[in-house]
Write a structure and sequence with these properties.
Elements: H1 6-9, H2 12-28, H3 37-53, H4 58-91
Helix pairs in contact: 3-4
Length: about 90
């Protein structure tokens, strides 16, 4: 879950916002296209998990998987599931 305590968010939001701003700048300047955004986000995520989890025991490395899957689950819960629920409402359940 991304709901870390407010105290732990200090500084983290600014770092993430800088990455977002840099990617948006590169897209708007034509350095790379909208289609390149996915690869760049994937690169940044991989570099983070590699840095923190490549070494260590198996269950330490599973934390990398847990972090990625938790982020995916949260994205699905907040953005994909409501869309699917709307379509069920509009078109009926299977």
């Amino acid at each position: 879950m991304p709901y870390i305590v407010q105290k732990q968010r200090v500084g983290m939001k600014e770092l993430v916002d800088e990455i977002i701003k840099e990617i948006e700048t590169r897209v708007s300047s034509g350095w790379y296209s909208e289609k390149d955004v996915c690869g760049n986000i994937t690169y940044a995520i991989f570099k983070l998990i590699k840095h923190f989890y490549a070494e260590g025991r198996w269950y330490d490395k599973k934390d990398a998987e847990k972090a990625c899957l938790s982020a995916i689950d949260e994205f699905n819960r907040r953005f994909l599931h409501p869309y699917e629920d709307k379509k069920i409402e509009q078109n009926g359940d299977v």
